[in-house]
Amino acid sequence: MKGLEVISSGLMTTVQDLGRIGWTQMGVPVSGAADQFSAALANVLLGKDINSPVLECTLSGPKLKLLIDQQVVVTGARMQVKINNKVVPHNTVINADAGSTIGIQSSNCGCRCYVAFSNDMEVTKFLGSVSTYVPGKLGGINGRALKKGDTISFNSIDTNLIKSSHGALPQYYNSWLIKVTEGPEFKRLSSHTKDNIENIEYVISNDSNRMGIRLEGPTLEINESGEMISGPVFTGTIQCPGNGLPILLGPDAQTLGGYPRIFQVAKVDRFLIGQMRPGDQLKFKRIKIEEAEKLWLDRVLSFPFLSKI
After folding, report:
1. Band of pLDDT at residue 223, cut at 50, 70 and 90
2. d(Cα 193, Cα 216) in Å, to the nearest integer?
3. Over the stretch 226-251, which tens digit does the pLDDT of each residue have?
């Protein structure tokens, strides 16, 4: 059935769900929404399965024309959203008639917003997921970002079951304090670096994307002790290459890495990776695994749908 037409694409707009689970052992990245919390929330507000397809809009969003009546929700970075040139709120179910235009502009804080519709978009599924993995041209719209002139069909499912959110929704800034636990090769850091790493303030490089966020700032000292065997990595793994500047891996990252894995972002903060933008500042806060587990359980109590992620 009719769906929507892309009038303009925005900087980087892709179809995502919660990712391609269970294939990393075959070298296939999980991909999926860079901010899983916001993507899932958009679907929850529409009373849909949290793994339903959404549009992920990076830094600046698209302009879309609806070809059928829809309920629409936008979550994540507070990009200005207009329906028929009228500003509408985030995290709110909006009724939009066929022929309506949806325009999403840029924001000053946060990197990505998510758009969900009451009907599911009909897009390419690969290995159980519609998430777009651009480097491998998998999923979504022919494995690529949206472009002007694209049309996306909707299926006939319409839940019309509006749910409300729970707990305090996250706020986005241009400075991040990210909770991390020690990684498998944390011991390779020099004593001086271990003692001072929480005082280091990094700047997110322009050379960052869904594969990884590069950090600029003071270099870390690694005590080499023979070659390191490549090991598994996933979203939130923080590696330290030979130049001493950490790389924070995103959803499209490789599944194996040969650089020391010095930290792992605590699950409670992992969704923030999708909201970090070039020029933002970032610092690490070390916590114990037990604290990371408790923080996640507390978050799930506030947002029960997170128990499925």
Report:
1. confident
2. 16
3. 567 889 999 999 999 999 999 999 99
Nearest to 166 by CA among 19, 8, 37: 37
Rg (CA), the chain: 20
CATH architecture of 175-308: Beta Barrel (2.40)
Three-state SS at 24:
helix
What is this structure's pTM?
0.95
Return mean pLDDT, the chain. 94
Q: Say how far apart CA 262 and CA 166 lie, in whole Å.
A: 34
**Order of strands across the sheet that contains 112-117:** 12-16, 54-58, 112-117, 70-76, 94-96
Rounded Cα distance between 103 and 65, Å, is 9
- The CA distance from 59 to 79, in Å, is 8
pLDDT tens per residue, range 255-293: 999 999 999 999 999 999 999 999 999 999 999 999 999
Domain boundaries, the chain: 4-154, 175-308
CA distance 304 to 293: 15
Please say whether the beta carbons of 230 and 256 come within 8 A: yes
In the block, tokens 């700047």 appear at 203
The torsion region of residue 121 among left (phi > 0), alpha (psi -120 to 50) and beta comes to beta
pLDDT at position 169: 85
Return d(Cα 303, Cα 97) in angstroms, integer: 30
| pLDDT above 80 for 156 | no
pLDDT given at position 168: 73
Phi, psi of 294, rounded to the nearest 5 degrees: -65, -40
What is the arithmetic mean of pLDDT over 106-124?
95
Pick from 41, 76, 73: nearest CA to 277 = 76
Task: Quote the CA–CA distance of 26 and 192 in Å, as a whole number.
Answer: 38
Continuous H helices in the chain: 36-45, 191-196, 289-302
